[in-house]
Amino acid sequence: MIRLGLSLLALLLALAVFGPWLTGVSASAQDLERVLMPPGLGEWLGTDNLGRSVVTRLAYAIRLSTGLALLSVLSAAVPGTALGLLAAWRGGWVERLLVMLADAVLALPGLLLVLILLAFAPGAIWPFYVGLALVLWVEYFRVVRAQARTLLASPQVEAAALMGFGWPYILRCHLLPELLPILLTLMTLGVATAVVALSTAGYIGVGLRPPTAELGLMISEAFPYVFEAPWLIIAPVATLLLLIAGLACIAEALRRAR
Amino acid sequence: MTSLAVFRSNRFLVVALLACLLAGCGDSGSGPAGERLLSVSAQWEPSSLDPAISGYVYTRMQIAETLVNADDEGQPLPGLASDWRESGDRLSWHFTLLPGVRFHDGSVLDGAHAAWVLNRARARAGALSGAPIAAITGSGNELIIQLTRPYSLLPALLAHSSTQMLAPASFAPDGSVKAVIGTGPYALVRITPPQSLEVRLSEYWRGPVPAVTAARYLAIGRAESRALIAGSGQADLVFDLDALATERLARETPERLVSATTPRTVILLLDAGHPALSDPRARLALSLAVDRDRIAAAILRDATLAASQLMPPTIADWHDATLPALHRDPAAARALLAELGWQPAADGILVRDGQRFALELRVPSNRPELPVVAAALQEQLRAIGVRIDIVVGNDGDIPLLHHEGTLELALGARNYATLNDPGATLAQDFSHGGGDWGAMNWAETQVAQALQALAAGVDPAQGALLRRRIVGELQRGLPVIPIAWYRQSLAVSERVSGASLDPMQRSYRLDALRWKTREPAR
Amino acid sequence: MKRIGLLLATRLAQALFLALGISTLCFFLLRALPGDVAFRIAASRYGLDMVTTAAAEAVRAELNLDLPALRALGHWWVALLRFDLGVSAITGRAVWTELAQQLGHTVQLAVAAVALALAISAPLGVRAGLNPGGRLDTALLAGALLLRAIPPFLLGLLLIIAFALILPLAPAAGHLEQGTLFLPALTLALGLSAPLARIVRDAMAQVSSTPYYAFSRTKGLSEAATFWRHGLRNIAVPVLAYLATQLVFLIEGVVVIETLFAWPGIGHALIHALFGRDVPMIQGVVLVMSLGIVLFNALVDLVCLLLDPRERTV
User: Fold this and answer.
1) What distances in angstroms separate CA B375 from CA A30, A43, B363, B388, B438, one per listed residue?
2) CATH classification number, B1-58+184-236+493-522, choose in 3.50.50.60, 3.30.1330.60, 3.40.190.10, 3.40.50.720
3) Same fold for the domain at B1-58+184-236+493-522 and the one at B64-180?
4) C107 touches chain A (CB under 8 A)
5) I need a labelling partner for A78 at 20 to 30 A (CA). Which of A257, B176, C37, C45 fits?
6) Least CB-CB distance to B294: which of A33, A206, A210?
7) What pTM value is reported for the model?
8) Cα C9 to chain center, whole Å?
9) Could you read off the pLDDT of B368-392 as tens digits, one per residue?
């Protein structure tokens, strides 16, 4: 299982790193005489509506999308996990306050927030981080808090505390290893959410600025050409699926290993 | 908890699916009396009952009419006014209204009410607000418009949808519109703004009874969705088809496609006062970098749409075949910019006195081809060292930014027949001070003077001369850079025949349609 | 009773917090619009040709734009608490009227989507839960992942191709014909049912491994009877609770689905408002959506309380 996941990710990584070097063209080089060409010997994945090489754009898109998605997921995961640990550790009014805050934010539609921020700052990237982080941190908070509560009450942690180990040690040796699998599962879903959010923003018209090559944007740009050139939309969707599948395999493998 | 027993696995699934299939908030393809309902779909939404805002939807669906109609070239034809003449001193126009025209509620159209409606239109934003009108009065079957100076374009303005005639009962005491009661063949039965409306043949219609007696209009904003509806045959008439859907239909079922060129041009608006663009050579350089043939062929799917000048050949009056066509020459473009002192920096972008040649291009999102054309332009201009940043937004942004003076470049699909006579639209765009969809900070007085003279009214020979001068100046000065012409397309279902496109986009010509089969289909 | 009171109080506090938060965000957005905001709004109401400084000044006074930020914010909040959502910057009509017209359509779509989602995911999830680790289980996991990675508009398009073009079963778009509810509801439902099926499966797997479930079988009750008596009510609570949290996904999906299928709901209205920079309308739509979620959550909490006697005694 873990080998499958790692090999999928390695494949994507190889494409991202070596793709442009192999094809030799730039991601924004247009050739209006050869638009919508099907995959063939010359162009491995064909050309898009402006004659750009799909394989090259995909390579750059993997870089950008993975970076964006991971960054936005981390900007939700880190505060969420930290607050969840804090709530479980301190308990009392700190915990109650944080839980109330989390409940309140839960009803906020994240995508809408991202769209609103984007509509006022079109083409900028920070609305994604802000919007997604603001909404996704709750998931991490709840899960981490629930897990940490049971863990902190466990005999191992009790023993460690009695022996005099401080909280950094307990965190590192007892809490994080248990939390990692479920955090990875959440992060996989988070990456999917982030890229789909970018795609939705592109569909509505408030996405990243052209000629940026990004998976979600490529999906929404290829949407009108579904009948004429289905490979244009299959390529980025398949790439996204492979990325998610790779991450999910690793997460599942780690979960099963526990 | 018996209510939860409804979770009866597969049976529930089937029932739920069937329920959804049969649901929907309306009726089917035929009206109550078994009459067939024509289904029309287009892009534009009737967001308001006010003619100044959504009037074009009501005239296109033939609910309301204007005093003057327009032929396929934009020249005035009699509408609700059967005849008109200019006074000797050319400062007043006398219109004779058709006698006995009734609104959908039975009331009669008379001169006094027509004058009231026009005065109301004049007070709001609309076609009449730019005309030199002093006063409008009327009584009986007569309507008199007094001008402050001669203006031969007046009849063309009165063909605009914002001047449509609505019954006295349409208006609330404060002047706002509470119902759309017009004089056309079809009366408005139901409206769900901003999405749909339903019409039925009016009993007071004065002309021959059309074959289509009931119709429904559905506004669908996304081009792909309109293409899907056209493909599935769900709607009888689908307007505003994009280039891809047109190509697909032409290939698969050409008998269901109606296509016509329309006096609409894709133009690159620019700020002629911008330091980088103030010299006409800079604008010429931008124009020389554009590969119009490829853009027309690859993006608009029709190579003949590459613009050689502002107006297409179908607008014979305003197309000068002797004018040297706009063409592509990137080497010449680079030479021109070098002449103006621009030097390429390390990244390929031109620099002059520490300033980069970088501009922001605003693109409206309501026409799907425009962002793609913008991406192509971005690459073509980068090849000569000009950096373009694309910002996709609303088409309302462009006039607003123009007013605020912050517009640098914008892409638009300008309809030069908005006021039916292209001369009127050009006057709006290129007179003194420029226009929202025309020149910005362009100090060319010859064109403004010529346009004003044309508006005042001249003899045909002088008119031809003036038009040639205007077109030539626009081609040389390039206050806007023409990119491509436009083609509008209509998909027709198998249920109807006799569909045609109005190049002036004033009417969907529903009354000219005929049903193909005898019995009600669907 | 005390429990219900506490519940309602928490939800009310949540609603208030959300309302104030969203409205503050919209207030600052309005102020952050580039250019002269009063001029913009006056221009969209009366048309650019007709805008005069007098009109712009009138708008400025109406929206308290010349007051310092904090005082204006106070005015904004007071208007909100009076249920005065203002007037749309584009059409000039009251935001309430516009929302009222569109909300009904969205609620119809949402209810249909939830019903379809439950109908799809419940039987699948129950079957998978009763055989954990089996083929259906892995298929469900893969399917859930697949649906998560496909953007909703693409899913909608695939369904249109399948059910409107290839098999002419349902209309492709619009809201006037019979059956136009089917495809948009199905698109939303598929997106919802992926995680929902997993939750049902997890709950079922957990419940079917409990002692009382095993005892029911030992007693001699058939599999079906065991399920109806012991399984259903016990899985209903976590499933309903999860559904409440997934409502946010539904709201977000509605925005894109309504645009694709030309369904005249508040999602469609939001897109228009976003492009038109119609801040009062944006505020109205987002408020309605968020408060709707809070209301629904409160209802689900009440239903869970009724369903599960253990929750009633604190």
Assistant:
1) 9, 21, 10, 9, 22
2) 3.40.190.10
3) yes
4) no
5) A257
6) A33
7) 0.87
8) 22
9) 899 999 999 999 999 999 999 998 8
